[in-house]
Amino acid sequence: MQELLIQLVGEYVAQYARDFIAQYCTPTEEKTVYDNSSAYPSWEDGSIGQGKFHCCCSAGVWYMYNLALGIDLYALDFNGLCSTAISQMPSSPNWIDVTNETLQPGDVLLSSGHTEMYLGGTENANFGNSPYAGKISPGPRLGSDFTKAFRLQSSVDVTPNGALPSGSGSGGGTSVNFSDFYFNGIPDGKYSLAHTSLWTLIVETLAQIADYLIGILTYIIRIPFIGWTAIMDNLLNWTVNTVTDTEVTEEDMGIDSVEVEGADDENRLTIDGLLYNDYQLTNINIFE
User: Cis before residue 160, ω within 30 degrees of 0?
Assistant: First the structure.
């Protein structure tokens, strides 16, 4: 379960990076500027999406985790200087060294002078592409351009929102552990995390399945019961009506013509009538 949660959160931040680059970082339109003068990204007009986007490779990876998950990687042993990050992250309790493992989306790739985020397949998010910041690069290139790969631990508290805020900042909000989120795949390929525990989701799903099964079994039982009840009711009605609908004439009885009681609709034989002894067929009422 822990490994699955790590994977899902990595896919979430990777998809967020894809969406961000597509929205703000088209290099041919010169929306961005490569700028390694600060460990934090900035916007020329002061708010996100306003003016050109200034960023470097490490700052871009920090920004994606910050916007998507509400965390500050610099407080988790990541560093704006690639050489510092690559030396301190292996011993950090906040990161898993996955250099010799199969990479997953969201993994951070490091060399002594560059940082990118693995997006999956053959693609990386690259915010250090001079003169522009922000594009999709071939990836993962681990073993050639990059010497180390790290994955965020599941014990790190996050506040995912999946929405671009009104301005850049350090994120924040009430921290919620990974285990308090579940992963929800959306048909368009994007990802979101919701504030519902995985255990609650499983219980609710099983309860819904059980409800459907009970409903189906109920109908299976009711259909033949109602069907046979209707058949017996019609059979009794037909039998009694055949008998009671006969007229007795003067020629037969030597008296004025009469109709046998019960020939009208009101006195048709029914199951309810039999049960409650409405026809005086017997002196026994099964409910007395």
Answer: no
Note whether 163 and 123 are within 8 A (CB): no
Q: How far apart are CA 2 and CA 156, in angstroms?
A: 12
Q: CATH top-level class for 2-196?
A: alpha beta
The strand order across the sheet containing 108-110 reads: 95-97, 148-152, 108-110, 115-120, 123-126, 135-138
pLDDT for residue 201: 64
Say how far apart CA 53 and CA 45 lie, in whole Å: 9
Q: Strands 53-55 and 32-34: what pairing? A: parallel
CA distance 13 to 62: 11
Residues 259, 249: Cα–Cα separation, whole Å: 9
Query: Cis bond leading into 138, ω under 30°?
Result: no
pLDDT digits (tens, 9 = 90+) for 207-224: 888 888 887 887 777 667
Q: Is 60 helix (H, G, I), strand (E, B) or coil?
A: helix
- Strand order of the β-sheet with 32-34 is 32-34, 53-55, 42-43
> What pLDDT digit, counting tens, does each position of 77-112 carry?
999 999 999 999 999 999 999 999 999 999 999 999
- Tell me phi and psi for residue 143, to 5 degrees: 100, -15
Domain ranges of the chain: 2-196, 203-275
d(CA 47, CA 84): 30
Tell me the pTM. 0.60
What 3-state class would DSSP assign to 286?
coil
Beta strand 123-126 with 135-138 is antiparallel
